[in-house]
Structure formats: structure tokens, C-alpha cells
Amino acid sequence: MRALIWNGVNDLRVETVKDPEIVNPHDCILRVTMSTTCGSDLHFIDGYIPTMKAGDVIGHEFMGVVEDVGPEVKKVKKGDRVVVPSFITCGQCWYCKNKLYSLCDNTHPKPELQEPVFGYPTAGIYGYTHAFGGYAGAHAQYVRVPFADNDCFKVPDGVPDEQVLFLSDAAPTGYMGADFCNIQPGDVVAVWGCGGVGLMAQRSAFLMGAERVIGIDRLPERLQMAREHVGSETINYEEVDSVLEVLKEMTGGRGPDACIDAVGMEAHGTGLQYAYDRAKQLMYMHTDRGQALREAILACRKGGTLSILGVYGVMDKFPIGAIMNKGLTVRTAQQHGQAYMDRLLDHAQKGELNPSFLATHRFSLEDAPRGYAMFKHKEDGCVRSVFIP
Ligand SMILES: [Zn+2]
Ligand SMILES: [Zn+2]
């Protein structure tokens, strides 16, 4: 089959690789009908996250049609059109039973790569480094889905592929981030980042009853999406002296009730702190640029909630004192998509959630390297590149 592989730092190629096969009785093989890029892919494509090997098939956000099932697969059937969350989960362990799916204890075959950094390993992810399991990814004609019954979600008829594709990752991540905020009527929610996850977090905050949502970014076309597709108010941080002051003004001096970081370790920013982060990151003295997260911590009202969706590794100058003294509640996780999928499919079917506007650019699989380049450089207003094998 044809697949997009990582060949080295900033070197993606489409090559012919071995077809996936049923390895375990709970597996299924999916014929991928649509997959999409993710900001977190950029962290290993450019080498910030190590443990990639030349030849690894990448991609973790996808949907498709079931082509073959293992002998123990009970619910999923050949021909089913399904969407699959990016974390691989067994459905049986303590974490899965407590709906903490991205922490599944049974799907990381290489825990020794994570334990020194995290203490315990997370679940595995498709196509996302050996530190996250070394599974083959989904920018390919076919992909193996372990634990098919737990991880394949049947798409209702009449809901088009493009609307469902983002239920694989961006939508459940954003939805979970809003859910973490325990939103009450009248709440103001500020979201750093207007990429796929940030826009989904904003939409979800409204679905959960937020009165006002404020999206923060620097790209005019993304801010426009936040206003037009979501109904958010927006701040372009490059056009204001201080996001903190603007947020204070917009909230009568109190600050947002909840702040969601949908940016992560490669944040852009302005000023001295950003220059400091950038310099240290370039020298590999720490891995993360934390401008967005620090700002969210300072901007949040006293006693508010900080919900962290951006991907992080190690950061210094982390304002733990502001969190402690202001009594913030901090919630964070990689997406527990399986916990939200029924609600998300219901929202999609009712037309309350339609993330298809994120799919700004479409490519054939053969053109995927160009799709990633456009996505990385945000060329032509690219929010997400979508691949159709
Ligand atoms: Zn993703
Ligand atoms: Zn599990």
C-alpha cells in the first residue's frame, strides 16, 4: 500500500510499504477514507520530540471503512463506516473503566521510553513516535486498529466524512477541554489558539453554556473563523500591548472564568519572555516555549479553571506561584475521545457541531508532503490539510 512516512527531520515521503495485517484477534483493518494533519505532528516532524525511526508511517486523525476483522471482534463489522480516536485503548483496564482512555495501561508496548519522563506510560497513539508506542499511522491506504470494538465508532448515515473526520481528535480534545472547565451559565471562557483544537474548544464552550468565548491568536484568517464559524470574540495578540489587560477590560476587571490553552510547546509570542524561550529551545536547554500557557495562568480570574490541551514536555519559568496563590483549578489530559464520542456524534447528527470548516485544504495521499508543508507554514490560510487516499 501507499503511505506517508517520516524519513528524517523535515523529510516526509510517500512510499510503498507492507500492508497491515490482523496481528491480534481483537484487531480490525480499516481502509482509510480520510485523514488529517495535526499540530502535534509538527513536534516530531521537525525533531522536537525524538524517538522517530526512518520509515515510520505517520498520522493519527482518521476515519474509514472496516475491511477485515479479527476472530474476537464482536461489534464492528466489515463494511462499517467508522471514526477512530487517536489514542489506542483496551476498554478493560482500570483507566479505561474510569473513562481515562488516553491513560490506558495496555496499549503502550514500549513503556520504558516514557517512564523516565512521566513516571508511568500513557496509552499508545497511531503514527506518533516510539515514545507513544511506535504504532503505524493512518496517512495510508490501510491501518490496523487494535481493540476494534472499543475504538471504532460507527458513523450515522447522512453525516458526511468531512464532518466526522475531526471527531477523531480535534473535536474531542476541544470538547474535553471545555468539559474540564465545569462551565456555568454566564461564564466567560478564553481560549489561546484558534487552530483546529482551539476552535473546537470554543465551539464546545458555547455548547456547554458559556455566555462569552474569547479566542486569541495572531493569524487574521483563524480569528475570522473563530468569529464567523463559532461566534467568539477575538484578540489578535500581535495587535495589542497586553493580552492580560485586554482580557481584564473585556471582563469588567475580573478576568475569564476559565482559560483553555490550545497552543502547546511551540507557542509563538512577543517580547522578552518569548525570546528567552526561543533561545533556550534552540540550544536544547529546555524543550518548550510557554508563552501562551503563562499568559493563560496570569489572565485567569482568581479561583478560575485552567484547562491545558496544548502538548508539553519540559518547561521552565513556570508560574506555579500564580496558580497556587490565585487558587486555580488545573485540568489537563491528552484526549479521552472514547468518553465523548457518543455525545459528539449526537451533536454532529443534530447539526450542532460541524467541524468541516477546519478542512481548508484537500490533497491526495501522494501529495501529503506538500499538504504538511502548507499546514506547517500556514500557507494560504491553511488550518488543516486533509488527505484522501
Ligand atoms: Zn492530533
Ligand atoms: Zn485500557
UniProtKB/TrEMBL annotation:
Keyword annotations: Metal-binding, Oxidoreductase, Zinc
Annotated GO MF terms: oxidoreductase activity; zinc ion binding
Glycoprotein listed as a keyword: no
Domain Alcohol dehydrogenase-like N-terminal: 25-157
PROSITE patterns xrefs: ADH_ZINC (PS00059)
Recorded family membership: Belongs to the zinc-containing alcohol dehydrogenase family.
Protein name (database record): Glutathione-dependent formaldehyde dehydrogenase
Source organism: Microvirga tunisiensis
